[in-house]
Amino acid sequence: MASYPSGIVSTAVFTTKANTLDIIDASHPNLIQEEVIAIETALGTNPAQSTNGSGSYTSAATAFGTVTARLNNHEIGILGDVHTQYVKKVDGVVTTASTSSGVVRNIYSSTSTPTGGMDGDVWLKYV
Fold this sequence. Notes:
Layout: H1 27-43, H2 67-79, E1 88-90, E2 93-95, E3 107-110, E4 122-125
Parallel strand pairs: 3-4
Antiparallel strand pairs: 1-2
């Protein structure tokens, strides 16, 4: 039975075998096979592939079936901008954080000298 994902196999279990010296039992490759299957099952399919924000964000979920499902949920939340306490930049346009978060800072980037704004705003002047 595989140790992963609830545990990690110790190196003592996977001992190095030498040709013509060690007897290889079927349990040796079978154990490795069980661990690989357990890792694949925990990861899910295509964990490196983006979802492009398709689906709905779940903030209440504490356990996901796979790492892929957990990563997809995070990506959907970020792309859907459900975290309104942060400043967000989309297609070169910076938006402010929600006033309900308690902290709002506007960020400006321009070649001009700063004008207007409020205390706490950030102005980045570039040449």
